[in-house]
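QUALITY CONTROL LOG
STEP: pairwise intake check
CHECKER ROLE: data steward
CRITERIA: each record must contain a sequence immediately followed by its structure tokens, with no blank fields

ENTRY 1 OF 2
RESULT FIELD BELOW
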Amino acid sequence: MTNTQRVSIDKQHPAAYKALIALSAEADAGATAAGLDPLLVELVRIRTSQINGCAFCLRMHTRDALKKGENPDRIAVLPAWEEADYFSATDRAALRLAEAITRVSDGHVGDEDYTAAAAELTEDQISAVSWLVTVMNAFNRVAITSRYHVAG
């Protein structure tokens, strides 16, 4: 971490940040309408933030998940979700898609990842997960760029 003073881009351009918040609300509504479990929604946000290394969003969404009743063990093993029996087929499909979208620079969202998601998720769920991840990636970038403070 550096001591360089950063512009807080959410405060510098509040209308843009408010638009991102509105987009997030739409993504949440889409996830609910698609029947995604609220705990899975938080796991998708946490996993996206883990990949991006966003401490601020990790803390926020881990707390949100725990408040909603998420099992701490599932959060603890989330980086290794493929190796753990804690996750349903739906969870696995959503997490795989979330990782592919977040790591888009590693080869785009490959057919293998998309096909695996489509085998378990409805079209509405694929779209909902995609929007959740897109918005979470944007929030991660806002927090990381602005160096949102995270303290114990």
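ENTRY 2 OF 2
RESULT FIELD BELOW
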Amino acid sequence: MTTTEWITDIALVLIVFRQLREGRLERRSFVIPLGIVAVVAYSYLDSVPTEGNDLVLIAALAGVGAALGIAGGVHTRIRALDGHLLIKAGAVSAILWVLGMGARMGFQVWVEHGGGADEVARFSIAHHITSDQAWVAAFVLMAVTEVVTRVATIYLRSRAHARAVAVAAPAAPAVPVLDRTA
């Protein structure tokens, strides 16, 4: 793995670790992770191979990313305090996030330095996966899907929570009107 890949992966892990401490849910809570994966997708996703079973591999790993992202978003606590929404990643959310990131990093290290290249090549031949780019696209799209679905889940839950808080909030007391006719 290159230094840039390590920095990117660590930055994505730190996003959730930062959310282990409760903080305000702000626009940057959505923009930063989406910005990071946009840069990753732009940097590493040259093409999406469609031959053989490449799309099956890509769809399977994107599906895993979506499941991890939705589950992570569901296990993130959102609450209102003083008119602001606060967010805190729960232990399950953090574990799922690290599991997804760790699996991608572990696979890459295993292939590059652990002798896994031959195993992946044999698997690819046996399952009609046509190129290295299929693996790159699958793992990049897994990461993108995980981040997008987690952020989308948190966004949808925050909107629903804000509406519920607004409905449940007691109406402001009416200002008494002075009757000047008496």
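INTAKE CHECK: passed for both entries
DESCRIPTIVE NOTE, ENTRY 2: Residues 95 and 128 are 33 Å apart (CA to CA).
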